[in-house]
Amino acid sequence: MSIHVLPPEVVDQIAAGEVVERPAHLVKELVENSIDAGATRVHIEFFDGGRIVKVIDNGKGMAPEDLPKSLERFATSKISKTDDLWSLKTFGFRGEALASISAVSKLTITSRREGDEQAHQLICEYGKKRDIDKVGGSQGTTILMENLFDNTPARLKFLKSDAAENGAIKTTLKAMALSHYNVEIRIQENGKLVSFWPACKTRKDRVEQILEIKPLFEGEASRENVKAYAVFADPHNVAKTAKNIWLFAQNRWIQDRSLQAAVNEAYRSLLMHGEYPIAVVWVETDPDCVDVNIHPTKSQVKFQNASLAFRAVAASLRGTLEQAPWLGANAPKPGPAPLEGVSAGDYKSTQGLPNFAAVTPKENLTFQDSSLNTTTFQKKDFHFPSANLQQPKLNYQCLADAAASRDNFETPPAHQQSVPQYQPEKNQEPQGYWSSLEVLGQANLTYIVTQSRDKIIFVDQHAAHERVVFEKLMSAWKGGKVDVQDFLFPLAIDMSPEKVEAILTLGKEIERLGVFIEALGPGTIGVKAAPLMIKESILGSVLDKMAHEIVEQGGSFSLERVVGDICATMACHSVVRAGQALGLDQMKTLLRDMDTFPLSSFCPHGRPVSVEYPFYKLEKDFGRIV
């Protein structure tokens, strides 16, 4: 069979199959062209699942003689030589979009430059251009695409339902609006206005405008020449899928599993299984350190050093999350120092679990008093003095009275008690969020009942204590106060040569976590020593998983994540449980301990520690307000 050159119309349709995979990609290309032309307002209309699309902008416009050139393949005003690919300042650069679109639709381009007396229009039907006409029109460019894929029925039948295609277009336009906060974007679907986003002053303003979530928080971080900036919701506002993680590289909307994993890593121990964060992240680096020309639709990029991008993204979110800004001004300060005088030898264990009394510094309470195992039932004691029947006083019986009395607290008779009031002492030292709450008692031997100025807060005692112990264990681990066990003979672990090489490059950092390794061969790692806390049987799977993530993500997060899982399990089995009575001082001390760690709003497994009930809701339920 002889080789022959394909006709231009076949070449154009092949290119269209790559660039115009579905109408949403087509819309993305057209809007990017408008933004490259300096438009500050872009109006998009689409009908019939994107088979008809109209994009109107107020950009610079095109000269009449450039209209037919714009429909030629590889015709562009944005680059002129190879080196330009590594210093791109525009979103389009290949010169394929309009040529591909015109090959599979009827395309009408109307454009007018500033200073021109009138606009000019060019119509192209499935690659066949007509003569240029003079028409009326304002400055900018209007592109109308009709009858998409009518000349390629095979492509037409692969389109999804109108609703699905319309949804994809709106998602694409939402991403475009997020990346260009200073551009006004108006969207009409089947003749109906569905979105209007005026230009904003900052990225954060745009994210709040589009996602309609408040409050949102900001964070940024740099790793060498890679910078990441993030706008995100707190861990209380979550999604059921990862679709609300929006990623941008060089302000281009991209799909990147590694960066998505970095966002999830930042929320580690703050979300439950099946929950995903809501975050918008921008990654910027030197133009010559990222390749944007690796995918036909430009939806993927390749970083020269993917590890730096991963670490920058994770740090941009984690740095703010660890400050717990959702708690307001009373949020604890981040980064508690490792516990002084606490080493791995202090972690006395019973059946493999640490004794909380040994882990906790002396000034902290322990929950090992055997008398606390005695069940205390709820009591009701209403007393109305005869001399004051018109103003009865409710007397609250704390469920922890028995425990409090054992701590030498004297409970006054019921008729001498008064209604608890939230009145902070004057000139007292500033308190953290949790210790500023007034403890009212214990409900169902499980929840600490507290109040602030405007709400009642129920604190899950097990989840709260679990977070405190978990953080103390992790602090001791990171501070190097962990006993290490030397092996008589190195423990050999087989893995691929690529993984061996990857894990050896981070040998010093791994040693900081208490694991000492060496190469026993091109496909074998030897473990000379490891922390006592990690069972020998799981070291192989831990290091293999870590090596895999180093290869894929370029990070050393895997081992710390496994250690975190182990510490979470240990904490869960060594803290106060539901159904255990606590004294008033014990509850207050637990709240003070929570203020030591900013992430005390969630247990290590991501469960919320507290539930709030505003007083206005109670007043509404009681009919005091409408």
UniProtKB/TrEMBL annotation:
Chain's gene name: mutL
Identification of the protein by name: DNA mismatch repair protein MutL
Biological role: This protein is involved in the repair of mismatches in DNA. It is required for dam-dependent methyl-directed DNA mismatch repair. May act as a 'molecular matchmaker', a protein that promotes the formation of a stable complex between two or more DNA-binding proteins in an ATP-dependent manner without itself being part of a final effector complex.
Pfam families referenced in this protein's UniProt entry, alphabetically: DNA_mis_repair (PF01119), HATPase_c_3 (PF13589), MutL_C (PF08676)
NCBIfam families: mutl
Domain MutL C-terminal dimerisation, chain residue ranges per copy: 439-582
Annotated HAMAP family: DNA_mis_repair
Organism of this sequence: Bdellovibrio reynosensis
MF terms (GO), sorted A to Z: endonuclease activity
Keyword entries, A-Z: DNA damage, DNA repair, Endonuclease, Hydrolase, Nuclease
Compositional bias annotation for Polar residues: 414-428
Family as reported in the entry's similarity comment: Belongs to the DNA mismatch repair MutL/HexB family.
Residues in DNA mismatch repair protein S5 domain copies: 210-322
Region of interest called Disordered, as start-end residue ranges on this chain: 408-428
